[in-house]
Design a protein that fits this description.
The protein is mostly beta strands. It has two domains: about 1-130, Jelly Rolls; about 135-245, Sandwich (Jelly Rolls), CATH 2.60.120. Helix content is about 10%, strand content about 40%. It has a four-stranded antiparallel beta sheet with strand order 1-8-3-6. A four-stranded antiparallel beta sheet has the order 2-7-4-5. Strands 9-18-11-16 form a four-stranded antiparallel beta sheet.
Length: about 250
C-alpha cells in the first residue's frame, strides 16, 4: 500500500507526521535519488501505543536505514522514474507488526531535497510478527581520534567511509581482538553482501560511502581516525542479544 509521497513539484523539505493504522512487515523507501546519493535525509518510525511507544528508528539517516534494512537479503531496485526502491525489513520474521485497537505506526521525514521525489510504501503480510527490527543512530565527534562503541545487543552496523579512518578494531565476546584498515573491513563486508542494487540492468554495490558489516558476537567496535571529520555509525538492534547479555530490552 502507498503510505505517502512527495512529488518533485512539491517543494517541501519535511513531511507531516504520517499515520498508518494497519500493521506491515516492511517499508519500501523509494526516491529518484540513487542509494549512494542520499545526504542528510532522516526518517523516524515508531509504534504509538497507549502505554509506551516503540521506536523503530529515531532520526535515522535514510541512507543507513536502506543499507541496514536490505543487507544480504534484498536487492535494491530501480525503474525509469525511481533510482532507489528499497525493501527495508521492519520485522525479524517477515510477519506484520501487531497493532491493538487505537495503536498506529507513525513516520516522519526531515531534511528532504525539495526538488526530489520520495515515496513510502508498506508491505502487508499473512501472519503476526514475534519481533520488530529496531535501528539506532550513533556518531563519532569531529575531534575524536579514538572511540569505543559497545555493540552488545546489536547484529549489524553501518559505518561512514572516510579517509580519516586509520583503524577499526572488533572485539569478539571470547576476548579476541581483530584489527582492520577501512579497506580490509570493506573487503570482508562485501564478501557477505557483494551485490545489492540493480541500476540500468547492472548489478552494483549500493552504498559506496558506507561499510555495512555484521556485529553478532562482537561486543565492542573501536574506531581510530584523524581529527576534523564527524562520522556516522548506525546499528540494527538484536533483541535476542539483549536477552543473551542480560541487558534491558530497548
Amino acid at each position: 500500500m502507498k503510505i505517502w509521497e512527495k512529488l518533485a513539484v512539491t517543494a517541501i523539505t519535511e513531511s507531516a507526521e504520517i499515520v498508518l493504522n494497519k500493521g506491515i512487515s516492511a517499508l519500501v523507501i523509494c526516491s529518484d535519488v540513487a542509494p549512494h546519493s542520499f545526504t542528510t535525509e532522516t526518517i523516524s518510525i515508531w509504534v504509538e501505543k497507549a502505554g509506551k511507544n516503540i521506536d523503530i528508528a529515531k532520526e535515522m539517516l535514510v541512507k543507513d536505514l536502506v543499507a541496514l534494512g536490505t543487507y544480504a537479503e534484498d536487492i535494491i531496485q530501480s525503474n525509469a522514474t525511481l533510482a532507489t526502491i528499497a525493501n527495508c525489513d521492519l520485522t525479524q520474521d517477515a510477519g506484520y507488526i501487531v497493532l491493538s485497537e487505537s495503536e498506529t505506526i507513525k513516520f516522519k521525514l526531515r531534511n528532504l531535497d525539495a526538488s526530489k521525489i520520495y515515496e513510502l510504501h508498506g508491505l502487508e503480510a499473512f501472519f503476526p510478527s514475534t519481533g520488530v527490527n529496531k535501528y539506532e543512530r550513533k556518531s563519532m565527534g569531529s575531534e575524536d581520534v579514538s572511540r569505543d562503541f559497545d555493540v552488545k545487543g546489536y547484529d549489524l552496523a553501518s559505518l561512514q567511509k572516510d579517509n580519516s579512518i586509520t583503524e577499526i578494531s572488533l572485539t569478539h565476546e571470547n576476548g579476541s581482538v581483530a584489527k582492520y584498515t577501512q579497506f580490509e573491513l570493506e573487503v570482508m563486508a562485501r564478501s557477505a553482501d557483494s551485490a545489492n542494487v540493480i541500476a540500468d540492468g547492472v548489478i552494483k554495490v549500493s552504498q559506496t560511502n558506507r561499510i555495512v558489516f555484521p556485529v553478532h558476537q562482537i561486543v565492542n567496535v573501536n574506531i581510530r581516525k584523524e581529527p576534523g571529520t564527524r562520522l556516522d555509525f548506525s546499528l540494527r538492534i538484536d533483541e535476542n542479544d539483549y536477552i543473551r547479555y542480560q541487558m534491558p530490552a530497548k
